Automatic annotation (TrEMBL):
Name this protein carries in UniProt: Helix-turn-helix transcriptional regulator
CDD domains: HTH_XRE (cd00093)
Any Pfam family hit: MLTR_LBD
Domain HTH cro/C1-type: 34-82
Top-level division of the source organism's lineage: Bacteria
Amino acid sequence: MDRARFADYLRTRRGARQPEEVGLPRGARRRRTRGLRREEVARLSDISVDYYTRLEQPRGPQPSVSVLGALSRTLGLTLDERDHLYRLAGHPAPPRSRDADVVQAGMMRIFDALPDAAVQVVTQLGETLMQTDLSAALVGDESVYTGRSRSLHYRWFTDLASRRLYVPEDRAAQSRLIVADLLASYTRDGAESRVGAVVRSLLEESPEFADLWQEHPVAGPYCGPVRLSHPRVGRLELHCQRLIDPDQSQQLVVYTAAPGTESHEKMRLLSVVGGQDVYAAV
C-alpha cells in the first residue's frame, strides 16, 4: 500500500466533493474546508472520524475492500478513479459490471450514422448485438444464435462452420487472435466473469483452444486486413476497423474495401443481395 499517495488522493477527492452533491447543506457560515469535511466523509462512509483521519495523515491501517467501496461512493468517484483508489490501497480493482446486451449510447449513435456500411456492435465475447444489412450479407445474420453460441469466440472453436468465410491459410492466425482477445478480457474481468465461464467451457471442449491458451498469446486491439471467401461473391480483401467503448465491453466493427477494387464492387453487390443466410449457401 502506498500510504502517502493514498492519503493525498483522499484529500484531493474530498476537496473536490461539494456538500450539496451528497445532500448536505452548505450552512450559513462560510466553510473553511474546501469541499467536504473529514467528519462528513466518515459519517457518510459509516466509519469513525478517527479512522478516516488516520487514513489521510497517513498513518492508518490498510483499508478493507468494503471501506474502499464506501469511500468511493461518498466521494463520487468515477470507475477509473475508484480503480485508482483501490490500487493505491494495495487491492486489485474490482470487476466492472458489464450489461452486454444493452448497446452503449455512443455506439448506437455511430451505428445509426452508418446504415449503408458493413457495421456491427459486438461484445468482448464476440456476441453481435446489432448489425447492418450489409454486415448480415457479409458474415451472415448473427441474431439467430442463442446461449453460449452467441459468442463467435465460442463458435470458432466448437463449430467449424464459423470458419468457412475465412480463407484456410488465415484460420490459424485468427484462432490465435481470438484466444489473445479472450485472455485480455479474462485478465481484466477475472475467472468468475462471463468471459471466465466461456474460457472454462472451451478448455473442456476444444483441445486446440487449450493448447493456444497455454501459450498466453497477447495481441493488441488492431483489426487489420481480412480475407474472406464469400459463398456468393467469392474472395474479398477487406480492411477492418474497430472502435472500442471506453469501458471496453463493446466494439464497433466496420468492414471496408478500398474504392476502385474488385472487392469494393463485390461489397456493392452484396448491398443489393441483402442479408440472406451466408452459411446456408456454404
